[in-house]
Amino acid sequence: PTGEMEKTLELRSLGNTGLKLSCVGFGASPLGSVFGPVSDEEAIATVREAFRLGINFFDTSPYYGGTLSEKVLGNALKAVGVPRDKIIVSTKCGRYKEGFDFSAARVTKSIDESLQRLQLDYVDILQCHDIEFGSLDQVLNQLHKPFPSSTPYITHPSIYQSSSQIINETIPALQKLKQSGKIRFIGITGLPLQIFSYVLDRVPPGTIDVILSYCHYGINDTTLKDLLPYLKSKGVGVISASPLSMGLLTENGPPDWHPASPQLKAACQNAADFCKKKGKDISKIAMKYSLCNEDISTVLVGMKSVQQVQVNVEAAMEVVNGEKDEEILVEVEEILKPVKNQTWLSGI
Ligand code: NAD
């Protein structure tokens, strides 16, 4: 009813999967201590608060903290006593501390290792982690040339044939894992947006259930927006990760390893300082900005404290209740204008 404050976190459908994800998703890379150290107690308290406040989606990878994120998330979920059927868990394969390996043998072994670390019998989603590092290289070089938009799965033209291990080897291995019940849905992740249509145009409908894009739907970079109608037409669920651009849109700033240019880092720091002077929190404003697009199933944000969980859930509540940041947003967008949609290189 009008006038009444919304109290539960909104659930959104993930493409054709039938899954309903909380609009704020829990990114567990910080639990691998990649954004500074996190104790087991903090990790458990953070996961407990997330579940209590209605977050039902948890994403990790064997790569984060060199398997630490999966272990810490698994322990935390167990310690909190979260019922398995009340949460949606996603992990990844193909990217490891030791390097990339998208071979069928490696990803098939990888899921068993992940399940053991997570202390689970299955994951809801298994995603090929950063496929621009797989053998799409020659293929991506051809992207400026016109190609048929719905190339059949097996009989694609020979100019692309040489290189697509992801399509011809990794995805079929994941389909077998789906049949075995170890995973329910298949996803692909990466930074350059072209990789998604490249793969989706070359597999039969329903092969890829989900894509995870990161750092492309936030105040400083909105390039994912143009791809959303296409993804919707394919029935593919959209996870938009890193709404804070991996720490750029925070008062404390990004970690040392952040790949952004000095110019982009400086502009984001200016924007954060500006908000602080106005008594506002840039992270909350950024969360609200990303959450406004309903074609995104979940805004996946990395969290490592109870307070961050509370702020990010509060952001979602404010969106539902129509509390906007219009004035300050205009000013923040103005500060970020010189670096709008600036990204960095990723892949081979
Ligand atoms: P992010 O943009 O979510 O930022 C995370 C940083 O912001 C962390 O330092 C976190 O502690 C901090 N933070 C979170 N909420 C805050 C708040 N309210 N106030 C201040 N600081 C806050 O970046 P991310 O963690 O890299 O991305 C989110 C998740 O998406 C990851 O944890 C991971 O699960 C997933 N992801 C996947 C890929 C991929 O598959 N290639 C890439 C990036 C991210």
Strands ordered across the widest β-sheet? 3-4-5-8-9-10-11-12
Report how far apart the termini are: 52 Å
Global morphology: globular
> What number is the mean pLDDT?
91
Helical content class: 25-40%
Order of helices and strands: EEEHEHEEEHEHHHEHEHEHHEHH
Quaternary state of the chains: single chain
By helix and strand content, what is the structural category? alpha/beta
Estimate the strand proportion: 5-15%
Describe this structure in words.
The protein is an alpha/beta fold. Helices cover 38% and strands 15% of the residues. The strands form three sheets. An eight-stranded parallel beta barrel has the order 3-4-5-8-9-10-11-12, surrounded by four helices. Strands 1-2 form a two-stranded antiparallel ribbon. Helix 1 packs across helix 2, helix 3 (104-118) packs across helix 6 and helix 9 (262-277) runs antiparallel to helix 12. Bound molecules: nicotinamide-adenine-dinucleotide (NAD). Nicotinamide-adenine-dinucleotide is lined by residues 27-30, 35, 59, 129-130, 189, 212, 214, 241-247, 250, 283, 300-304, 308, 311-312.
Distinctive features:
8-stranded parallel barrel; binds nicotinamide-adenine-dinucleotide; 348 residues; single chain; 12 helices; alpha/beta; globular
Can you give me a brief rundown of this structure?
By secondary structure, the protein is of the alpha/beta class.
Question: What is the element layout, followed by pairings?
Answer:
Elements: E1 11-13, E2 20-22, E3 24-27, H1 40-52, E4 57-59, H2 68-80, E5 88-93, E6 95-96, E7 99-100, H3 104-118, E8 123-128, H4 137-141, H5 158-161, H6 165-180, E9 183-190, H7 194-200, E10 210-214, H8 228-233, E11 237-241, H9 262-277, H10 282-291, E12 298-302, H11 306-320, H12 326-336
Parallel strand pairs: 3-4, 3-12, 4-5, 5-8, 8-9, 9-10, 10-11, 11-12
Antiparallel strand pairs: 1-2, 6-7
